[in-house]
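Every protein is a chain of amino acids, and every chain bends into a shape of its own. The protein below has been through that process, and both of its lines are reproduced in full.
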Amino acid sequence: MQNYITDTSQTVSESESHTQSPTELVVQYIRNLILSRELRIGDKLPTETELCEQLGVGRGSVREAVKRLEAINLLNVRRGDGTYISDVRQNKAFDSLLYKIVLEDIDFQEIVDYRIQLEIGIMRLAIRNVTGDILDELKNNLLKFSQYITGEEEKSPFVLHDLDIEFHNILGKASKNRLLADVYAVSLSLFSPYMLNNYGKGQVQSSPEATIENHTLLLNALENKDISLATYAVVNSTQLWQKWNDYTRK
């Protein structure tokens, strides 16, 4: 049998173990096994008994930890067989940041600050690396977005949301950095409920020009390779997002 009991347990320090709950201790231990690449995609997790003995916790804590990690699709529990490391590359539901938001009381201002810093970084790389075909994708998306917003038909918040998310995913692709694009894609799922809520509460009906302008400024910044405009566009866009989130929460 493969030996799973490794020095990885030492990465969970004594001081941490005193401040963490038993369940959190198990989550951290499994996470460290994966980050240290001692466990890879498709590998089998240590048994419940092994984890209990190694970490000095009860079966209930191990089961709860596995349940949490299964909920974000990091683990795949096969009844009667064991628990395996999932292939998160094939699973768009993998979203540890969203999991953190759900479990912890993260203030919305923290999300706003995070989005601003992340998108400025995305734009810096996109300005350097964007290609003509990706600029065309952004233009096509912006055209559909603008036509839908200014059209006569009733506006579906779901269509608006999907076009908005698509635009930002293309921005991530424009960075030509797969790791950053993946982080951005996961982050967009954090922002997504707020975006959908804003559209559902009338952002486009009340601020159609501002909504279109945000994407227009981002596209112009890429075309002109203007990082100052990019920074302004990110902050301007995020401020509108925050303004409508604050309004809809009242």
In short: The longest strand covers residues 75-78. The radius of gyration is 22 Å. The chain is about 70% helix and 5% strand.
